Amino acid sequence: MAETNPVEKQEPREGIYASSRLERGLIVLTLAIASIGLGYLFFTQLWWKAPPDFGCRDDFTRGGLCFFIEEESAIAGDANKLLKADIIGSNPGSELSVPIGWATQLNGIFIDNVVLPNIRWFGYVIWGTEAFIFLSMCLGFFSRLGALAAIGIGSQLMIGLSNAPNEWEWSYILIVLLAVVMFGLAPGRYFGLDRLLRPRFKALSERGSRVGRLLLLFT
Amino acid sequence: MSPEIVALLVLLGGVVAAVVFTLVIVVAVDPSDANPRSGNEGEEERETEKS
Fold first, then answer.
1. By three-state DSSP, how is residue A81 classified?
2. Which member of A21, A25, A144, B9 has the greatest number of CB atoms within 10 A?
3. What is the nearest CA distance from B49 to chain A, expressed in angstroms?
């Protein structure tokens, strides 16, 4: 399949892809800022839920990560909505919204049956995934895989916590949207370690290596 | 050792592992080897021109 990297394209379509060095530099700079910013967001959230107790107290029943997981479980059965637009201020409720009650119920079943009973080891999965997102986004290392993990974690938080008390739904929606952009652009190709890895994975892939093909997908 | 120090060491280990992995791949895989030549490109080109 032909590569369509707009930065490296030799003969860009006029007016569409970056043609000047300044514009190419701007693309790399903005992608690096966005990617490192997303990675730093996940870095800041690693500390209040650090292993081995993930900030939980009283035999993993309260506080820290356990608090938020139980919060998700508690509101799972509500008539939850997303993308709420209160157009007419005098009217109660939102004129526009997307019902996500079915998704929060499924999330609740997952929380109650998988996460909560196994929080002692599942906490490591959550912490490890967020740590990988930090490394991936800040180093540009397997950045497409890191962005995919960010979409997964962000979507789960968006579904589970957007309707929780004192939460702003756009905090989570924006994480997902930024992660979607990072997934599409794979920022490591522009500024990170993927820039070194990708040509070599491509060479492996073209020699028929399945591992090379798989690793190429992740960068 | 406090959990925060352990977590920081794990993250530092991750950074080092990512850099070492990249260096190993850079040293071990030659990117110019992509699309290895079969040795009969000239013949293939002549066949294409004929058709």
1. strand
2. A144
3. 24
Contact across the interface for B18 and A141, Cβ inside 8 Å: yes
The secondary structure of residue A116, as a DSSP letter, is G
Distance CA A210, CA A207 (A): 9
Rounded to 10 deg, the angle between the A169-185 and A21-44 helix axes is: 130
**Does B25 contact A200 at a Cβ distance shorter than 8 Å?**
yes
pLDDT tens, position by position, A112-171: 999 999 999 999 999 999 999 999 999 999 999 999 999 999 999 999 999 999 999 999
- Interface contact B22, partner A, CB < 8 A: yes
CA–CA dist B48, A93 (Å, integer): 69
Tell whether the model's pLDDT for residue A4 goes beyond 60. Answer: no
Query: In DSSP terms, which residues pair with A82 in a beta bridge?
Result: A98
Report ipTM (2 d.p.).
0.85
